[in-house]
Request: fold
Amino acid sequence: MADRADIGDTIAAVFREEHGRVVATLVRLLGDIDRAEEAVQDAFLVAADRWPRDGLPPNPGGWIVTTARRRAIDRLRRDAMREDRQEQAVRLEERLIDQPEEDIAVPDDRLRLMFTCCHPALAQPAQVALTLRLLGGLDTPTIARAFLVPEATLAQRLVRAKRKIRDARIPYRVPTDADLPDRLRPVMAVIYLVFNAGWIAEGGTLVDDDLCGEAIRLARLLVELMPDEPEAAGLLALLLLLQARQPARTAADGTLVLLPDQDRTRWNQALLAEGRTLVRACLRRGAPGPYQIQAAINAVHSDAARADQTDWAQILALYDHLLALQPTPVVALNRAVAVAELHGPRAALDLLDQLDLPAYQPFHVVRAELLARAGRSTEARASYDAALARTTSEVERVHLTRRRAELPDHGSRVDVDWDA
Amino acid sequence: MAPTKYLLSVYGVEDAPVPTAEEMQRAFAAVDAFNGQLQEKGAWVFAGGLCPPDTATVVSMSEGQVMTTDGPFAESREHLGGFWVIQAADLDEALEWSRQASVACANPVEVRPFQSDV
Reply:
């Protein structure tokens, strides 16, 4: 029999693993997110009480769903005694009891819930918060910290979003084929945003593994449930290829190591292999989209055993394609980095001069690095200052401060921050 | 489950260019056709276009006295120009009607659910 600490870890792991699935199932059964969350929370409390004594049930997820369902019926019966909630309670209880118990897990449940959480009628910050809360099982303080908002603001955001889902009747279903492209976009954007928030985390550590891991889990789920969507596969491939580099992004002393300087033997080979296989498979379908192209760009990086073996011509060609699909200043900025490698920092700086991204921190980082490489130290210093003024990650702040201090009075080569 | 009613409000901007007579005719015809669709599919509850905001009068109570003042109430550049009340199974259905409404009247449409009857 496992000791208490072990079983505590196991329950926490089951919670993370099963939370999305059981909440999604309960949302379908109850048609109400708040009641579903309550029931699931009840069930996990019962688990925390019972599992340390009786051991883990053979199918923990199924056990949670069954228990949550029973708890929901109990709560509905209690509510049926109260006049103000009686009618709804009776209706929901009938609905619950009508569902055969053995038929309560439907693979599409989480997909449906994802489309509900990322419905275009909800603002993106609300989409992100709901997805992490309901599908990821992250608690409110964790989500608030990741997105730099006060906890009360985030809690309010969740309450408002859930109320809108209920009152405006945002449906709980997978959209029709005709609507799918429009509806898939916000789902993928939310997953990407969650990963990004983890990639350069707030505060003292560089990476928030919870957020990056959760984004990959959600992307995997999307691919598993929508295997015919090449962009979903492209998104997963992109995240896996980036995640593979995590071990090499920080030095032993916790400082940031940029892509050209990374010890490539520390890259996670299993994630790279999976990412590359996915990129090849989705590009073969001949429907390239922004995520697939970004994944392909990162696959090219990962193919180079040393930084100076990187096939920049291919990367630039991919950026040309991406810019045609997505003509945004951010894509143009990333493309300029590839231009600098092929044609030198001056050509890239000319491109940057045409971009209007004054509030975008990576713009100032790239510009500073390019100016440094072009030997324009004074301007580079000003650009580092502009970047530092917009930097929230402590690890990145240390890195940029060091770079700035390293600037010589005469020109010399400094590597560009590819990793930003 | 009983359908939900939604208010589809049409907003016009005060100093937007005045549509030509031909554009107006086209919009009227399109709205007529759209209304026909709503009725045919059982989504129609009520609809109407409003006279310009400077025809509005505001009535309010202050210390037990009725106050009548020249309107409109909201001092904004955007004004309600007309509305539909429709019934739909869920927001996606209401949004699809709203898309068609916006095309027909050539203006933005705001969708808002009514409180449920229960």
